Amino acid sequence: MDTVYTPAAVTALLLLLAFFVWTARRRRRTPRISVRPREVLTAAQQRLYRTLCAGLPNHYVLAQVPFAAFLEPRGQGQQPPVPLSGQWADFLICDQAFRVIAVVELGAGQRSAQHDELLRDAALPLIRWQDNALPDASEVRETVRDLESLRTLGEQVGDPEPGPGSAAADPMDADDAAAGGGRRREPHL
Fold first, then answer.
1. How far apart are CA 172 and CA 175, in angstroms?
2. Domain of 142?
3. Most buried one in 15, 97, 139, 147, CB count within 10 A?
4. Residue 116 falls inside a structural domain
């Protein structure tokens, strides 16, 4: 009877040893990081997103978009600039053909000067609204309508995209615009 148990015991030990070796190798390959899901947008971003969607029913509003998804080098064969990899837009407002009309940012001073420079070089308007002074749907609609009018005007004049120095690309200080009077809060364009 000892001869029957011995091969079974050896086989069981070998299988157990193989299992331990397999799990040890698997642990080395799989990083030991504990993760959990989180909300994609903050509470203020969620409010602005809803307002953008309500004010722009004929447009697409995209959230948390990496710059590399909507910007590319001008010349063929050029490598994308390093700054594209770490830059994100809070929101993109796109027309029905998914052409970017504007980049929307919530809050001030959170982004780098390089962020603003990339958007200016691409002739994409940047709209900044503050967490504590979010626009309503009509203000969003009016701002985007103004930007679309500027783009159409540029196309009629023969300039397909407003370049640096044009009204759509130059930043405007929202505090200076608000000091001019009127009820309308001006976004940072």
1. 9
2. 43-179
3. 147
4. yes
* Residue 118 lies inside a defined structural domain of this protein: yes
**Sign of the Cα pseudo-torsion (95, 99, 102, 104, in order):** positive
> Does residue 187 belong to any structural domain of this protein?
no
Q: Scanning the structure block, which residue is given the tokens 């407002």?
A: 93
Identify the residue whose tokens are 């009016």: 142
Tokens matching residue 25? 């190798």
CB atoms within 10 A of CB 93: 24
- How many domains is the chain built from? 1
Strand partners, 104: 91, 127
**Tokens 């130059």 label which residue?**
170
> Which residue has 């086989």 as its token pair?
11
State residue 110 phi and psi, 5-degree precision. -80, -25
pLDDT tens-digit series, residues 110-148? 667 888 888 998 999 999 999 889 999 999 999 999 998
| Residue 169 pLDDT | 39
User: From CA 187, how far away is CA 171, in angstroms rounded?
Assistant: 10
Q: Cα separation of 95 and 169, whole Å? A: 18
**C-alpha span between 65 and 105 (Å, rounded):** 11
Residue 175, classed as helix, strand or coil, is helix
Using 50, 70 and 90 to split pLDDT, how confident is the model at 76?
confident
